[in-house]
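Checklist before submission:
- one chain only
- standard amino acids only
- sequence pasted in full

Submission:
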Amino acid sequence: MDPTSQIIVALDCDSRAAADALIEQLGDECRVYKVGLELLTAAGPDVIKGLVAQGKEVFLDLKLFEIPNSVAGAVRAAGELGVSMVTVHGMGGIGIMSAAVEAARDFPGMRILALTVVTSMTDADLADIGVVDAVDEQVLRLARLAQKAGCHGVIASPQDVAVLRSSLGPDALIITPGVTLSGESPAEHARPGTPHAAITAGASHVVIGRTVTRAADPAGALRVVRASLAP
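Returned file contents:
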């Protein structure tokens, strides 16, 4: 896969103006953007329409966790916007994930991805909500359930990639947030890794946030990340 397409830049911005400024700075250096709850709430769906109009791919990270009918409706709305990927929460179970997959059938270019365990969570966090298994066991369980439901791939930490690739096979998408360059702070991510390690382990995409978005030269920082993916 082209390294340019493997890097998803997280538009974790609090306004449309901030997002537009970053998109302009990155120009042709970035093809795929993540739009999450913060930006979608602040700017509305027009920010997605703007990206699609520029020929960009949009990874809409909503982590949908609702009754199946509501999830299906949200997926159809995302498809109408031209979104390329949308996330559902694996903890919602096979009914929610299957509803999302079925709703996506009308949009052949859109992929449904299941969140396994948020990268900030630890074994202790899972225990707090009654999950007795370790994070790595829960990740694998939810990934297998997502595959059974027909999801196109999963969201997991860089540290989970190798096991997931072995279990899910070569065609599944595995997208990894929580990636930082060597020496950088992992911030709130409890299970981080480098972009190179994630791709080498079998990730299809990596999500990059502060490394690029808070750099003095975002385009230059993105080029550094891309170079780090080289074998």
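Reviewer check: The first strand starts at residue 7 and ends at 10.
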